[in-house]
Write a structure and sequence with these properties.
mainly alpha, flat
């Protein structure tokens, strides 16, 4: 067990340096090789979707139809809000009404 731990401790610098070495090899390949540079540029364009076609502009008639629908829905919501404020509250259930009544009648003033 001690030999394994000693070996792992000895290999730790390798694990720390290996990603840096791989990055350095890639960087040198990108600088030196035009093919690697073009492949990286293509990968970057695909990754960032720079070659994607531009999104189509919305049709003016479709936009106007959507605005009309929104206005119609806003009018409907406004009407429903007005109706809801005018309606009396729901009737109180009899058990709840009985619980709210005072036990002794209050004499009229």
């Amino acid at each position: 067990m001690d030999a394994f731990v000693t070996m792992m401790i000895a290999l730790m610098p390798l694990f720390a340096v290996a990603p840096l070495a791989i990055g350095a090899v890639i960087a040198v390949a990108l600088v030196v090789s035009p093919r690697a540079r073009d492949a990286f540029a293509e990968w970057t364009r695909r990754r960032l979707r720079l070659d994607a076609p531009p999104s189509p502009t919305p049709d003016a008639r479709a936009v106007e139809a959507l605005h009309a629908e929104v206005r119609r829905l806003e009018e409907r919501v406004g009407f429903l809000e007005r109706v809801m404020t005018l309606q009396p509250r729901a009737a109180t259930p009899p058990a709840l009404a009985a619980a709210r009544r005072p036990s002794t009648p209050v004499p009229p003033a």
